[in-house]
Design a protein that fits this description.
Number of helices: 12
Number of strands: 3
Helix content: 40-55%
Strand content: under 5%
Radius of gyration: 20 Å
Structural class: mainly alpha
Amino acid sequence: MNKWIEKYERYLTLLNKSERTIINYTKTLKKIIKDEKIEDIEEFVDMDREWWFSWVGKQREIGKTSIATINCKIKQMSSFYHFLVNENIVNSNPLYKFPKVNQTNGLEYKEKCMTDEQAKALLRATDDERFMIGSKYINCRNKLIVYLLLNIATRIEETSRIRLEDLDLENENRIYIRGKGHGNMVSRFTNVNDKVKDLILECISYNPNRTYLFESEEGIQLGTQGIRNVFYLARSIAQVENVTPHMCRHYVGSSLAERGVEAQKIGFVLGHSKGSKVAETFYIKPKGNMNDILEKIDLFD
């Protein structure tokens, strides 16, 4: 990590930061690296927004760090993530517009943020005639997007990247996921339930020669905004305006936790390699069939 700290110092120098600022920023970075036992720069990829909310909660629980200091460290680490974006280590800064901690909200962030009723309403919305806005393929594609987000909790960019070659449905309904920050390379696998598998097969049947699972009628990869727009349509029909696509990940993670699934297995489902309250170990593959884990969510029954 030393070489990255040195590169970060040069980056701050190019930004005309004062010597004192550079010392303070790198001091915070070094402490977090030490405290979290970070050995590789890639580990910052998985320290996403939910990880930092958990980090804030941990600081508040310990009670040795003032609120002002917590907010200061968040600001300093946001600068480091800007650096990582420039270095193409991460795709975006998870601390951008991160809410300030105060006396009342320090421990109020709850990852679930979505009830079972809201999740089921989203699924029902995909059968509403107002959701049927295009061809049979488009309607099937859009329904699959909502079901997939609520089944395996992929990130938006991961959902957009799924290719037909990443599907291995004969092998325990498996999908290989191209994780963020991994150069668009496969970083893990997960398994979908039978309902989602059937939707995938139907979606493929309309055009088995496409590259990506989610494309436009013209064969263009559906980007992250396109994925969001589909979710927002379902959200509007379901009348659950307070939920976002990323909340699907927190919903799945917290639902599994409530049903007694081990943190390391939840971490693997969500694609975490670095520990937090959701995933406490480095990229550990769970033993056995992933379906046994995901079936603990009875949302699709």
